[in-house]
Amino acid sequence: MSKVQVEPSAMANSHGQPQPPARWPLCKMRLPSLQNCIKFGIIFCLGLLLLLANQDTCINSSSQQAAVPKPMDQVDQSLQVRSRDIQYHDDCIASLSEQEEKHNQEVASLKQQIRELKRELKKHQAGGTQQVEEPQKYKEVEGGIRAQRSSDVDTHDDLSDFVRQQMAKIDMHKPLHSEYDVVPFSSLNSKLVYSLDSGLPHRPSQRPRGDRKEDLVEAVYFAIDILNKKKDNTFNSFSIDNFVDGIFKSERTIGTYYNLVFRGAQENYYQSMEILRPFSPLQKLRSQVIDTNKILVNIIIPLSGRIDKFKSFIERFKSVCLDNRMLVYLTVVYFGEEGLSEIHSVLFNMAHQYNFHSYKLIRLNLPFSRGRGLEEGVQSWDGSDVLMFFCDVDIAFTKEFLEHCRYHTVPGRTVYYPIVFSLYNPKIVHAVNDAMPDTPQLVVHQEVGFWRDFGFGMTCQYRSDFLSIKGFNMDIKGWGGEDVDLYRRYIQSDLKIIRVTDPTIFHLYHPKECQMNLTAEQYRMCVMSRAVNEASHTQLGILAFQNEVNMTLFHMGQVKHTWLGAAVQQGQDKV
C-alpha cells in the first residue's frame, strides 16, 4: 500500500487546502473493477472445489459420480462403478478400524507396563535397607511403613486404607479360647530385652542382637522423631537419653506393636508413644520344582572305637536308607587300628545283605579329630559336586530328614544347619519314672529332650561350598570348636544359612567326658554341654527332692510317683 500513498505536497494547494479532483483519477487507475473481482472469486471457488474433490478418494468419489446425470445406456456401467466404490469404501473403513484396534492394544500394553514398573519401583523402595541412625527416613511415609497389597496396589490411597485397617486391628480385642492363646509382651530398656522366647538357656534378660536390635533401635528413634515434631511439645527436644522403657509384641497377622515411654522435662512426667509396624499381605517370592530323587547324599562319619555305637548306627542306616532305596553314599573315616577289623566286618555284611557297595572306609593313623576326619572324607570324593551330610554315630534320623537336607541345601546359595533334638540321659528319665520305655523314643517332648541350639556339628552342604570356604581349621585340636569356626565363616560369607529346628533328627544320649588337656574355652563348652544333656529341670528337681517326694507319696498310698510318665505319654500321643 506504500506505492498508493500520495505525498502531502501533491494533496494540497498553495494555501494548504486539499484538492479532491487530483485524487480520483489515481483511484480509478489502482482499484480493480467489480467484474474482475467476481471472476477472481469464481476461479478461486472452482480451484478450491477441485482440490477438495481430488483429496476425497475414499468417501466422496462415489457420491460425486452419483450426482452427475448419466444417460440411460450408461446406467449399468455406473452401477458397477458405484459398487466398486462402495467396496473400496468398506475396505477403507475396515482398514482404519483395524489400525485403530491395533493402536488401542499398544496403548493398553504400554499402560500395563507402566503399572508393572510402578509396582516394581514400590517393591524396590520397600525392600531397601534403612539406616536406623537416620530418623529423617520417615519423612516420606509416616509410620515407617512400606506395604503393598497383594491385589496390585496402584495408588497411595489403597495403601493408606490397608495401613489404617491394620492399625485398627490393634485396638480390637476378641475373646480367646484359653490362657495359651495370649501373646505375651516383651519388655525392654536402653540396654536389655526381657522376653520369654529365649530358647534353651531360658535367659531372663539378654542384649538384643541382629535384626531384633535393628528393629528396636529403629522403633525408638522413630518415636523420638515423632515426639520432636509434635506442635504441643513443651519439652525442648527428646533424645535417646529420655527413653525409659517400653513393651512390644508381634502378632502374626497384624504386625509388631510398641508402647515406648520417654521421660519429660519434669519429674514423674512421661510421654508415651504407641507405634505399629504392620505386616503387609502375603506376596509371592518365587516357586521352584525340586527333584530329590536325583540328589545323592554323601554321609560322612568320623569314628574312633565305639564299635557298639557304630553297629547301632548301621542298623538305623539300613532301616532308613537301604530299606527305602534312598540315593545315599556312606563314607567312614576311622582313626587308629583297634576295632578296624570289626568295622570292616560290619560294612561287608551290610554290602552282602543289601547288595550295597556305595560306601568307603578311610583309615587314619592319627589321634582322633572330628574336623580332620570330616576333611579327609570331603577330600576323598573324586566325583562331581555332591551334597554332604556331616554326621556322628550318636545321631538318629528319619528319611524325611534326608529330604530336608536335599531341598534346604542349594549349591552356591544355602547351607543347612538343623537344630537337633537331643535326648536326655535315659537312666535319669527312668529313675524318676518307671513308666518310661527302655528304648529311646524319637519324639519331641520337654521331658524327653531339648533343642540343641548350641550345637553346629550336624550340617548339610555341597562340596563346592565347603571347598570355597576353605574347609575346617586344622589348627584346632581336641573336643569342639572346629564346627563353630566353620559355622562362623559361613555366616560371614555370601551364602545363606538355613538354621531351623528339625524334628526328624535326634542326638542320642551318651556320657560325655571333659578331658583335662582341653583349653579353658573348650573345657567350659564341654561342661556346659554335659550339664544340659542329663535331664530336664523338672526331672533334676524331682531327683533333688526324691526322698521327700517318695515319703509323701507313701503316706498317700502310692509307693512311687507316676504323674510324670502320664504327662510324657500324653505328649507322645500328640506327636
From TrEMBL:
Keywords: Golgi apparatus, Membrane, Signal-anchor, Transferase, Transmembrane, Transmembrane helix
Matching InterPro entries: Chond_GalNAc (IPR008428), CS_glycosyltransferase (IPR051227), Nucleotide-diphossugar_trans (IPR029044)
GO cellular component terms listed in the entry, alphabetical order: Golgi cisterna membrane
Subcellular location: Golgi apparatus, Golgi stack membrane
Top-level taxon in the UniProt lineage: Eukaryota
Assigned EC number: 2.4.1.-
Keyword Cell membrane: no
Region (Disordered): 1-22, 124-156
Gene Ontology MF terms in the entry: glucuronosyl-N-acetylgalactosaminyl-proteoglycan 4-beta-N-acetylgalactosaminyltransferase activity
Membrane topology: Single-pass type II membrane protein
Composition-biased stretches (Basic and acidic residues): 134-156
SUPFAM superfamilies per UniProt: Nucleotide-diphospho-sugar transferases
Record flagged with keyword Transferase: yes
Family: Belongs to the chondroitin N-acetylgalactosaminyltransferase family.
Descriptive protein name: Hexosyltransferase
UniProt gene name: LOC110991016
